[in-house]
Amino acid sequence: MEKVYPLQVDGYTMHGVLTVVEEQAPLVIFSHGYNGTEKHLAGFCQFLAQYGINSYRFDFLGGSVNDSSEMKTEDMTILTEMRDLLAVVDYFEQAPFVDAKQLYLFGASMGGLVSSLVAEARPTVAGLFLMFPAFSVARDWQQRYKTKADIPERLVFWGMPLGYRFFDVLLDFTLEDEIGTYQGPVYIIHGDEDAVVSHAVTDWVKPLYRQLDVKILPGEGHGFSKAGEEETGEALLQFIQQH
């Protein structure tokens, strides 16, 4: 069964799609990247369904110019995306058809950063799978805007309008101070030709995770080829089956 399954978050209706093939089976919550939507991750959900694994994918509120939410992209920050994902996790941990001990997070790019932060707040998450996670987003913007006075009220970046608060939140953000308490298994898959977020940023988190596996795909960038996505799907399936 796959159906549109919206959730109410902070007064907004957040679009989502739920795929259930078996009750009390593992559930994977998928978080898309910057200016993306749940549609970009639908293939992974359909792949997992073949193996009896349930999934939920959703659009972050204000997370894309193409999403269906009522919130403006100018109001989105990594904190609002954390709020959204926390609401999803908390909802499905209580859902009668979900085994709360088998709830996994999958995050792509900025959705990977947000998923890693949410795992810190919800340590009962069974596993964390990250596809080219944008661990460097704060440091990248800190190089451009060093003080609050430098931050613009509005900036269109990669086709999406961002507001002052997006950058203000990142100004004092230090990744190493925000993650490192989650003790569950973590898997990171990254391309060695990623020009947006270098796979080298994974070195920042290696000392912070107790159960970490890293896979670097040759020839892949920020956004995998069909072959890279297939390899990611297989790695995700093995990750869930293992844990």
From TrEMBL:
Keyword Hydrolase applies: yes
InterPro entries noted in UniProt: AB_hydrolase_fold, FrsA_esterase, Peptidase_S9_cat
Residue ranges annotated for the Peptidase S9 prolyl oligopeptidase catalytic domain, each copy included: 81-242
GO molecular function: carboxylic ester hydrolase activity
Key words, A-Z: Hydrolase
Entry protein name: Cinnamoyl ester hydrolase
Native species: Halolactibacillus miurensis
Name of encoding gene: cinI
